[in-house]
């Protein structure tokens, strides 16, 4: 029974430490009255995946476990015009608020609103730094290893260990890859072998959280690096590279 409890706890930890994002919001009418039961569709334009939450009795909705990317969010309710919010950017470990105000009309009528990029996440108190895959591929780094990205993150120093975030201990720094802990069992420190040797071309984005860690990162007290790998898209693409390093280097 004890072994089963440990396995279940480990599974819950792996699920909780996700590197995905979340969209939340409130849906009201033009008078400010809440609208329960509004059907919502969130579509990732690159992969074609969609999610279909609905507002609750308080007019609130929440959709976690969204892969980083750009989404189109559609709101539909009987007696109201369909509202489409485009270009909603979802980033790793962040929560994006998308509120909606529906106007009275027929469902066949629609209103399209383009979103503007948010400069500051206000839904959580965590602070950190995000680097996209495009930026990773252009930044200079030794052997193109992702750990060198820490050199560009404000508040993180790499002297005396893997990294110190906001003055925390190096051994307290943690890392996850697609929501799975990369800590070495038994020692509780980051495994710097295959986990950190992944080349940057494989990364969708990397988020380093430096202060006020969310509860799902309970095994860290000095910062978290959350790595999200690229997922498939509707377009054919690939990458090839060759490396050479002389022995005397």
Q: How would you sum up this structure, described in words?
A:
The protein is mainly β and 249 residues long. The protein folds into 2 domains: 2-114, Immunoglobulin-like; 127-229, TonB-dependent receptor, plug domain (Ferric Hydroxamate Uptake Protein, Chain A, domain 1, Beta Complex). It has 2 helices and 16 strands. It has helices at residues 2-16, 133-138; strands spanning 21-29, 39-44, 50-51, 60-66, 69-76, 82-90, 95-97, 100-102, 110-114, 127-132, 156-157, 164-165, 174-177, 180-181, 203-211, 224-229. The strands form 4 sheets. Strands 3-2-5-6-9 form a 5-stranded mixed sheet, with no helix packed on it. Strands 10-15-16-13-14 form a 5-stranded mixed sheet. Strands 1, 4, 7 and 8 form a 4-stranded mixed sheet that branches. Strand 5 and strand 6 form a beta hairpin. The longest helix is centred in the N-terminal third of the chain and has 15 residues, at 2-16. The radius of gyration is 21 Å and the shape is elongated. The N and C termini lie far apart (54 Å). Mean pLDDT is 75; it is low at 3-16.
Sheet with most strands: 5 strands, mixed
CATH architecture of the largest domain: Sandwich
Strand order of the largest sheet: 3-2-5-6-9
* Broad CATH class of the largest domain: Mainly Beta
Rg, Cα atoms, Å:
21 Å
What is the domain tally?
2
User: Helix and strand string, N-terminal first?
Assistant: HEEEEEEEEEEHEEEEEE
Strand percentage, roughly? 25-35%
């Amino acid at each position: 029974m004890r072994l089963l409890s440990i396995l279940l706890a480990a599974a819950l930890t792996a699920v909780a430490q996700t590197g995905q994002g979340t969209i939340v919001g409130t849906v009201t009418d033009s008078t400010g009255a809440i609208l329960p039961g509004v059907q919502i569709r969130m579509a990732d334009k690159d992969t074609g995946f969609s999610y279909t939450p609905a507002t609750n009795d308080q007019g609130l909705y929440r959709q976690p476990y969204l892969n980083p990317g750009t989404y189109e969010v559609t709101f539909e309710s009987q007696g109201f015009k369909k509202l489409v919010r485009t270009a909603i950017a979802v980033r790793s470990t962040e929560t994006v608020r998308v509120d909606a105000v529906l106007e009275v009309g027929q469902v066949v009528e629609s209103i399209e609103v383009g979103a503007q990029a948010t400069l500051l996440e206000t839904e959580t108190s965590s602070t950190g730094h995000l680097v996209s895959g495009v930026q990773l591929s252009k930044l200079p780094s030794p052997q193109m290893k992702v750990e060198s990205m820490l050199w560009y993150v404000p508040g993180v120093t790499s002297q005396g260990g893997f990294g110190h975030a906001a003055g925390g201990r190096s051994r307290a720094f943690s890392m996850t890859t697609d929501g799975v802990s990369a800590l070495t069992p038994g020692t509780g420190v980051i495994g710097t072998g295959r986990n950190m040797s992944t080349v940057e071309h494989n990364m969708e984005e990397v988020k380093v959280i430096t202060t006020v860690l969310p509860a799902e990162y309970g095994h860290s007290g000095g910062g978290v690096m959350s790595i999200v790998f690229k997922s498939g898209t509707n377009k054919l693409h690939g990458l090839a590279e060759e490396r050479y390093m002389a022995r005397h280097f």
